[in-house]
Amino acid sequence: MPALGTITGVINRFRSDLVRPQVAQVILTCTGSVDNGSFPITVWTGLSGIAVYDLRGLRLHDVKVIAGTTGPTNLSNMTITDSYGVDLLDGAGLLFIPNSGSAWTNLIFLPAIITDDTSITITGNLVHSAVITVVLDLIGI
Description:
The chain has strands at 6-14, 23-31, 42-43, 59-67, 77-81, 102-106, 112-113, 119-123, 131-139.
């Protein structure tokens, strides 16, 4: 049986006053399988260290991806889906992940509200042990 990749995460929350919205940043470290480069589908809102915070009501404002030293297959795909299977990136993650450097997509005109368990799926990578950092910026409404 092939070894699975891993996805781990941390959250940074930024204090705000009554004028500014609540802001949080989720940082996911995604490591592809040593056997075939695949990444597990992961409910990132349920990861240790993230699940202790109620993120419901925050909007997914933008997404950044940064290729690691061992970069993934160029133009790999990513979806961020809710419990209904709806892609909160609305297709913006298709051919999105670079082999080196970084990429960014802004959802300011169509921010997606986090209402329940939300998953990340990364596909199209064939590089064994590839590393990708995914940064999800969330703001209050």
